[in-house]
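Incident log, support desk, overnight shift.

02:14 A customer reports that sequence design results differ from what the structure should imply. Their input is reproduced verbatim below. On-call engineer (initials T.W.) acknowledged and began investigating.
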């Protein structure tokens, strides 16, 4: 419980977040970032995350830390081709990060941005580095999701896969994500009205947050694009009800309106050891407390948070009731709603500023973007404990626990 958490003393090698920034999230093909390649989005956040105030990139004396202090960068990405390892290195160099800073990419599908941050946090925790950046980027305009299997079909022996002892689950890895959403809705008897209501609420919350200026502190503009453009304030349950199911046209419940949007965006998190932050007198925004990834059946991959969240909380000696804010990716209303209900979470604590249905889900960026939004929300609202979680294609869930310590000291 929280009492155990309170007794956990700070450690010099704790991985701490000292800056977190993202681009606007814009609709793929139709939105404001459609003509910008992934490297441009990435370079924008890599340069911005090094600043004291990323929203004022041209201010004098604005560096939080010198680019030369960055020892390693990890980039989460899903859809870009293998040459992205080259283009992302080019993006880092173009952001004036020196060639002495190393860089890698990681792909754990929809959790890639979170995994990138985890990789850097764990490298700090074990002493491999003192300062690093975890980031995520996706341009679903440049690399459409529907072309993925056409360009890069799985490299497997199909006879072996179709005839092995576990062939059913093996082949379930190929089920389209929207069909897995229908599987969740059918298995757990989720009706269309429930899912459309959940989706409309996501837009309502995001529209309110944007109107109140809550996103301004976390967004660095790309050119003259400075706002998310997928939020639809006029969305209602009645309007969503007019949309036809996409994946099961006769009896389905999953539509374009209660699924996450195809989106372009990037986000970056600057981390360092507690010892390094203290030495540099840099304020700590949040502390990385725990991380978990758990597998689940591929055909209902969306339920992953049901398993990952309790695992991450257990590692942090916490229960679900101890957490103040949850950011759970809304890949589909079906899986997000089911996860919240199954874990008995307070809906008021989940995605208070909307989620993937309203803001969008740029696959490799999402995990990092959710950290940016979570940290800003926790600090703005004086909340102490937060969780980021999402489902993962082929059947997994990931979750991380963050703590804002100066809230604890003030209580």
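02:41 Re-run completed on a clean worker. Output:
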């Amino acid at each position: 419980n929280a009492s155990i958490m309170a007794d956990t003393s700070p450690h010099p090698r704790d991985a701490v977040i000292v800056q977190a920034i993202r681009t606007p999230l814009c609709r793929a093909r139709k939105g404001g970032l459609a003509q910008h390649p992934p490297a441009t989005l990435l370079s924008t956040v890599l340069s911005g995350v090094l600043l004291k105030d990323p929203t004022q990139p041209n201010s004098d004396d604005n560096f939080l830390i010198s680019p030369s202090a960055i020892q390693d960068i990890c980039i989460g990405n899903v859809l870009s081709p293998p040459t992205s390892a080259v283009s992302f290195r080019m993006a880092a160099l173009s952001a004036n990060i020196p060639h002495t800073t190393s860089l890698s990419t990681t792909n754990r599908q929809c959790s890639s941005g979170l995994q990138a941050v985890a990789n850097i946090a764990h490298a700090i925790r074990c002493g491999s580095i003192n300062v690093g950046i975890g980031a995520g980027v996706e341009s679903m305009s440049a690399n459409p999701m529907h072309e993925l299997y056409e360009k890069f079909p799985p490299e497997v022996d199909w006879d072996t896969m179709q005839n092995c002892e576990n062939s059913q689950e093996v082949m379930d890895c190929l089920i389209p994500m929207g069909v897995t959403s229908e599987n969740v809705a059918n298995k757990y008897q989720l009706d269309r009205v429930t899912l459309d209501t959940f989706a409309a609420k996501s837009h309502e919350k995001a529209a309110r947050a944007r109107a109140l200026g809550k996103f301004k502190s976390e967004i660095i503009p790309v050119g003259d694009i400075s706002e998310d453009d997928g939020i639809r304030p006029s969305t209602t349950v009645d309007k969503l009800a007019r949309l036809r199911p996409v994946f099961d046209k006769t009896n389905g419940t999953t539509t374009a309106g209660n699924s996450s949007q195809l989106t372009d965006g990037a986000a970056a998190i600057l981390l360092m050891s507690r010892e390094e932050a203290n030495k540099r007198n840099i304020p700590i925004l949040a502390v990385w407390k725990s991380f978990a990834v758990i597998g689940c059946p591929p055909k209902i991959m969306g339920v992953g948070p049901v398993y990952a969240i309790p695992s991450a909380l257990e590692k942090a000696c916490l229960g679900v009731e101890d957490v103040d804010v949850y950011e759970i990716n809304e890949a589909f209303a079906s899986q997000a709603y089911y996860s919240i209900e199954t874990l008995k979470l307070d809906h008021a604590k989940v995605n208070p500023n909307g989620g993937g249905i309203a803001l969008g889900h740029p696959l490799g960026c999402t995990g990092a973007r959710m950290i940016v939004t979570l940290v800003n929300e926790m600090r703005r609202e004086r909340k102490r404990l937060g969780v980021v979680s999402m489902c993962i294609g082929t059947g997994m869930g990931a979750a991380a626990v963050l703590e804002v310590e100066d809230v604890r000291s003030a209580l």
